[in-house]
Amino acid sequence: MALSPAATNGIEKAIGKNKYTGKPVTEILTNGFFTLDQKWTVKYWNGAAEKILGVKAKEIVGKNIWEKFVSVIPVEFYSVYDKAFRQDTPVHFKEYWREKGTWIDVVTYYCNETLFVSFKSSKQPNSGYPGNPEEQLKTLTELYRYVTEITNDCLWEWDLKNGEIFWIDGGHKRMFGYHIENALVSQSFWESRIHPEDIEKVLSELETMLQTKGTDTWEIEYRFRKADGSYTSVHDRGHIIYERNKPSRMIGATRDITEKVMLKKKLEADGLARQKEIASAVLIAQEKERGEIGRELHDNLNQVLSAIKMYTQMAMHNENNREAYLQKSIELTDNAIATIRNISKSLVLPGVHIIGVLENIKNLLRDLRMINPIRIDFFEYEIDETTLDEKLQVHIFRIVQEQLNNILKHSNASH
Fold this sequence. Notes:
Elements: H1 5-15, H2 25-29, E1 32-36, E2 42-45, H3 47-53, H4 57-60, H5 65-68, H6 75-85, E3 91-97, E4 102-111, E5 114-121, H7 133-150, E6 154-159, E7 164-168, H8 171-176, E8 183-186, H9 187-192, H10 199-211, E9 217-225, E10 231-243, E11 246-256, H11 258-317, H12 322-347, H13 352-371, H14 390-410
Antiparallel strand pairs: 1-2, 1-5, 3-4, 4-5, 6-7, 6-11, 7-8, 9-10, 10-11
Helix pairs in contact: 11-12, 11-14, 13-14
């Protein structure tokens, strides 16, 4: 049921927004439709079935179909229906009905303890049925022009009031493997093919659409079970037809989007893997940084503070050299302050939301050039910092900082 924006624009230009006035395809193609329970009792019988078989719904609903047609329906019909009761995939067959003098094309399937039968006759009377052959051809031409502007995928028309969906022109056979072409399926059959994890979402959004006034389209993505039991990801979109300001029908299509979904999942997985790599690199850098800070505090700052304590104690007990000892303590204190400032600077990154990661890197390089005899060139290539969150900017800065420290310590590089 997937319509592209371009297709939607084409529809609105061709027929006007919500102005498609053609008859339902089920009326034009005159498909009979009825349902049976496991005791062969007729539960539903549509208007087309009344005309094709010459039996009114009130005369057959609630009765056993074989008792009603015991001397009329060919025995082949019973064997196919009985087979359909024992499997959940649609059965398609054609049989000549001698008593009716016509070929009957039948699609039947079993779902939710109910047998659904959609059928059409190759020799149906036009008398009393909507439209003559010319009118039917005109309506069909209009309908197919309409749907071909929507998509070339699986086409359908959905009778929202009766819960019947007409699968048009074999798209569902090609895509999903169901032997259903230009035939009715029940809404319950469609629901039974939706992935169990998706069914609640799909039905909830469908209900919301039906209750929302003025909605033009309905669309959703979900997983749909094919005839072979496998699932494929699909995107449905339908154009809603209103009668008396209430949604009565939808015309739309189903598109297979499995490749798109798989690609999206792969990109998400690749992105997650990259994030894990970055996080791992940051953790390694942090551990190394902690070790270096520990060594700096123990081997350097601790010795400086010990020397300050020693000179201060000497000044307290040696009046003659007190001034020299205090001056030395002041010098060492300045040294300790500078050391602490350098450690703090390496730990605390100025707010990236204020100056950004690029400016922080430039400040880092400026400090390194002042105390190291090395040439450092920095290039930035069309980087938009607004696309990077603060956490990622900090990670990038720490990685650059760690790599520069390694270069200065181990590479003996001059550039």
